[in-house]
Amino acid sequence: MEYMGYVYRNTETRPNGLRLYVCDVAGCYATAKKTVHGRVTLTRPHTHRTSNRSSAGDNTNTNLIETIAFKAALRAKVNAGHGRLIDIYRSEAVNYPMGAANYPWTSACSLMTRIRKTGFPAAPNTFAELDNLFRTGALNRFCVDGRNMYRGFFTNEVGKSIAIFACHALVDLVLRQNPTNMYVDQTFRIIPPKPRASQLLTVHFEIDSCSFPVIYCLMEDESPTSYYHAIRFIKESVLFDYCPRNIFSDINLLLISPLGYYFPTASLDCTWFQHNQIIYEHMIKFGYSNLIMDSGIAFRCLKMLMALPLLPPNKIITGFEEVKAYAYRMQVHIPKIFDYYNLHWLHQIGTNSMSIYLKPTKTINNLEMFHKKLNRSFRTLPTIWTFLSGIYNLNSTYVTEANRLSQGGFPTKSFRCQLMYNHFKIRTHTHRLMEGNLMIKDFILLCSESLNSYEEHLKCWTVKISMNWAYNQSVNGERFESDVDAIEPEFEMSNDTIHEYIEQFQRQSPEEEQQQHQQQQSLQSPQSPQSPQQQQEQNEFESTVDYKVHSPASPETDDDQSSEIHGFCMVCLTTKHERKYLIVPCGHTWVCQKCRDQDLKTCPYCRDEIQLFVRVLETSV
User: Fold this and answer.
1) pLDDT at 173 over 50
2) Where is composition skewed (Low complexity) in this entry (predicted)?
3) In the chain, what are the domains?
């Protein structure tokens, strides 16, 4: 057969009609195939030119040679681990334009993905085996600018290991900017099952409102010795000759001690995002995951707990009692989370440390975005190679961003409108609270509504965490039971011990009780005197619908829980003095007459079905 100036001889004819050919020239191993429809395709290039100088044949042979070289370059780059697959393809497509035209990304993606998956060795069972792979050069693909991001591993006194990963180029670029804020985060729990690890500790730095994750620590346990070894290694090997001005963490008692020891001049503080992540994580540990997934009222109680740090330090305890009273009235039984919050956050951490009232740094939106990036990279059950590849890709991206900032460029951060709107609402409600125009309970309810964006994110995070824990337990050969059994050791105590501790702490002197009583009275507006007839109508109304809320854990006082209806319409948020209506049977207040006439079917607060509207007397407003 002669095709485009080359002569072939037939070597095989298959039953489906496909014919295979080889070049008839001695020493040339070019091959071709011909379908039953007569289409000829060159599969292996020739080592010589055509005898009659056919331009079509020579061009086809040249294109095939370049396509094969393009595939070989892609295979070599993927095995070396030079960044993301799409970035590898784009960089090599510049060198082989005809090869990229004949072999597009849609075809190359499957080949490159298969090479990357099969190019890794077997997953190590211990950190020592992982360290051996890095030292023997089997994982040189995780190098940025010729330097591997693996920094080493060490073992504490009890035999638990810790592995440290930090990109040299990213650390140098970030520290060159002399950042003042350092964030230590340990709330991300999606980790590989092998080698066995209990948590991921990350260290971030803030530059021009952009957060740069520079250090990753895979820790096998969460003991005080492991935290000391990890922080000491970070200080001596990665962040030497550097001390930040502010350190933000989740105020873990086991973590803040080594942070304060190795960074003595830095001030330790908590952020709202990390507080919320810890609260949600303990809701899962205490076995309330199904409750908050199914009940909107229970999830509202959780959001009200998350909004407590927005209060001033001297009003957080009062707000906590309001949340407990609301849960008691709505018949939401979550005593373990209330006991944990009271013991850990209010008594051990303290209201001064957890309050973010009027502080310039309330939350870390960049840290929340970083968690979402890790979720997209790791999925649900990541292997150690998926984990390291995700970190490597993030480091490559952040190195480019840090280079832009070091050269005087602007950050490419995109601000979410929802986050800016939530910040505006919180600032408005805080201003009203400072002026005394907003009660503590209303402030908590309003600020909790700004956490609606957390709902779907945290629920998906709950499912991933549960699946990851179950898979890790099954892989490591340990028993996995309900979430209630996964309580931290520091909270494994009897209920009697907890209540004794709380009762001792709540014993106050008469002067302190009188001072709190005066503070609560100052927040309430003075009531106008009522006539006997109006007082009788109000008493009849209160006997019909009881909207007083008393905390089961606190004594009932008339001044602390007044029967005054205040605030704003739950639908249009108006505060005008017009006709107000109470919703029956749930008893939530209040809606204005204009909103009532819009044919409301369910309560905008609890979504219960509305059976009746009860007019609220102006004297009780």
Assistant:
1) yes
2) 516-538
3) 2-118 (no CATH), 127-271+364-406 (3.30.420.10), 564-620 (3.30.40.10)
